[in-house]
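In these records, each integer encodes one residue's backbone shape. Here is one protein:

___
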Amino acid sequence: MTDSFSLQDATVAIVGLGLMGGSLALALGAQNACRRIIGVTRDGKTCQAALDRGYLDVAGPELSLASEADVIILATPVRTIIEQLPQVGQVARQGAIIMDLGSTKHAITQAMQVLPPHVEPIGAHPMCGKETFGFEAAEATLYRDATFVLTPLARTSAPTLALAESLAINVGARPTVLDAARHDEIVAITSHLPFILASTLMTTAAELARDDDSIYTLAASGFRDTSRLAASDTTMMLDTLMTNRENVVVAARACSRHLDELANLIERQAEDALRAMFQDAATRRRAIFKP
């Protein structure tokens, strides 16, 4: 059970000051949401840049800095988070909350299960981001109006969940509680499959443009917007896909079947079937994302 404290009274340590961690530091600082903010990153330039922005009280490369924190947030790639958790469990003070911002949740919450009993773990995944990355891309408004998924463990106490919800609200997000395994099933379709499709589009374009690069001269907003996610951080996305591989494979193979079906319909000039398929997709898109 964690000691009872409010976010306003808490010292928050953020491990990893890339896009997500850096934006969280800026958002918490801009709102004066907590007492102190500690940044942990091995990149000296990032440390200095974060301090220069004026919201961090301390920044450095040593994970031991997190021993001062009431809340420790891991904002590194998923497999790095899993590697860091045992070290964080060793340095964390009694009653400290350990949270993460990883893009997959089942593997991380499984790793959190074996953290020592004196800490309070909870998984989290803010549903936001950009194809640009690093602290230079961080912005205080990144979390505004985003869904902030929280995946508590069986051992997570009610005060810990409440504080995590408070943190999400303070950075402008909308907290929602979800089972970790179900989260991974959903994001395989809504987040990971779009990245795969964008990367496949770029690979296909490169193959067809091998002898004629005019394809890029003619590329307009549709190609630009559809391929945007292919520019995402490669390390982060590899960690994401490898720690959610079963769900991602199911989604990718289902998509492949639909692409084959579409190609066959076009080849057969089956306009009625194509019209029905496209109309159904358009109707669903408009229902989900209102103009």
Summary: The beta strands are 11-15, 36-40, 58-60, 71-74, 97-100, 120-126, 147-152, 174-177. The two ends are 46 Å apart (CA to CA). The longest helix spans residues 180-208.
